[in-house]
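Q: What would this complex look like in 3D?
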Amino acid sequence: MSKTKKLGEGTYAIVYLGQLKADPSSQVAIKKIKVNTEYRDGLSMDAIREVKYLQELSHPNIIALHAVFSSKNQNLNLVLEFLPLGDLEMLIKDSEGIRYGTAEVKAWMGMLGRAVWFCHENFVLHRDIKPNNLLIAADGEVKLADFGLARSFSDPYRPMTYQVITRWNRPPELLYGARFYSGAVDVWSMGTVFAELILRVPYMAGNTDIHQLELICQAIGTPTEENWPGVSKLEGYVGYEKAVTVPVRGKDFYLARFGTAGSVGVDLLMSLLALDPRKRSTARQMLEHKWWTTDPRPTAKEDLPKKGGGLEKMGDDLKRRGGEVEDGRADNVARKLNFGAMK
Amino acid sequence: MPEMTEDDIYRTSTQYRIWSFSRELLLSLRSTTNESAAEGVKAALHAQKAAEQEQSSKQDSNGSPLQEVDCLSVDEEQKLVVFYCVQNMRFADFCEFPTNVKATAVQYLKRFYLSNSPMTYHPKEMMPSALFLATKTENHYTSLKSFVSKLPKTTAEDVVAPEFLLTQGLRFTFDVRHPYRGLEGGFMELLALATGKGQSRPDNGASPTQLQKQMEGLDPANGGNKKSRSAEEVVQRIQDAHGKAKEILKTSALLTDAYFLYTPSQIWLSSLFVADEPLARFYLDFKFPTPSTMKPKLLTTLGTCANLLRSSASADPDDSELKELKRIDKKLYKCRNPEKIDLFGINKASEEGGT
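A: Here is my prediction, written as structure tokens for the whole assembly.
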């Protein structure tokens, strides 16, 4: 194995392009995790989470970890699948250069859904699903990456931290400080990705956690005991005056914005963005939805739109630590390095 | 798309791919590790002796010849590792860590010592590091400072220095699949059956009430003579079995080679066999109502696993066991690899890019 080119460097990791010595045409990404000089508690939680889960999850829509090796200075090196075509965020943003429609969105959402279903089937919560964690392989296959915030399902009565998932993709239960939650948090994030793929801008882009909740109330409806039994018991729940309560948005509201997805597509979107996590679709139910068998058929992966410049993007995407975002999406960071709360 | 079964999913885990073995392979791995460690110890001690003799011959040429080093056997290594697994469990209990942290830390030690010998790295020094790593991998992160404050005579360096070595020995796989959730699920199912709320399987003709009656007619557990005659008594019996099985999973299942040889579901079902065999047989009959080729195979496997669990070293060693352990530890004192004793120094050197 040799490193041939540096693709990106961040505070957390350096990403190189690599190849097998025996086969120079083979390509891999090597993510070298930096020894954190400020963190004296040994191997960091991000690195542990990422290695732990990628070692277990082997699926066509999850970035493959080929090997882990240690180099001198006790650096951890992750040999990852080479994904040269950037990420979904890049395609969404390039509304001038990249044209796509429902068939393409269906293909991408299908791949995302299968990845998340597989995580949940293995009792893993990803907790940071967003367009720039969805990388694209040379053949157009979408791969879920960045498991720096992932964890196994908690045992009953064991609390988890709510400081996860990038704000724009964070579900209302986490914004209200829920400490007991399920795969439904990732499903909400999939709903926001679905909406963003159609609109080509983030659907609910809050500046603060409070603002995020306001946007959810406007776009989806105000969470109340009627539409979400038990919500008022969540630590961070704020009561709403009757006068400002927005009723849960009906199908017409969604059709007006997301009509291109078709009536059945809108049904699926609404089921992913249900306020009450118990009523929200599961990843499995999502894959069983009739949207997949409704016209148009999803585009074949090799016919999906592609964009150049993905190499550097992969370097940028992989060098981040889980929950971290680049400038421009600033102040949108889920992570707080509060490990005491991260149980 | 073909459905993935639970077994298919388990087979993708590192616990299955990397950490599951046949008995023969496990033994041969340990023998290889023991032999190469013994060679390392002998070579290092010879080198040390030679250096000493060179020093002393300058003053006095009467250096004593090197005696043959008496190295630990595979069996002695195993006893020592198991003892430090017990110590690890006690320490985890003292820190009030949850069961999965404790259980994972023990498996880390057992996995590490498949490819490393106590003659090279003393388990006493690896133990705190294994427990600390388990708090991180099992989402029970405790700051190093507070972790160390609970340990007697241990510094932060003592905990962190062996960590990288440990992760290498673990081949950078951190996930350990435990039998605890399976056990809880199984007992919830048994309780439902006992109270007439059992879900009849499509291939099982018995109604929930019939299943409930069958349970009341079961032979008593482990040679007892009192049958449980009412639903309440059956529930009590299930709770007793649950307590016993859980205790087995928290001790014997961890200290034996069960995790290397069997799957989590085989382990918990075997613990049920040890705790209450008639109940275990009823449960399997419920799961396999029609004749299947799988059931006799499974029963054989569960039988050997149950025997393994019964043969476990005690989680509370008695005087004679402690005496034996002291003997081994004393022997180890003379056959430790002198080049690997200073873990802190080795760690520091490799962090700085040396070695």
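A: To summarize the key features: The first strand of chain A starts at residue 2 and ends at 9. Residues 45 and 148 of chain A are 8 Å apart (CA to CA).
Q: Very helpful, thank you.
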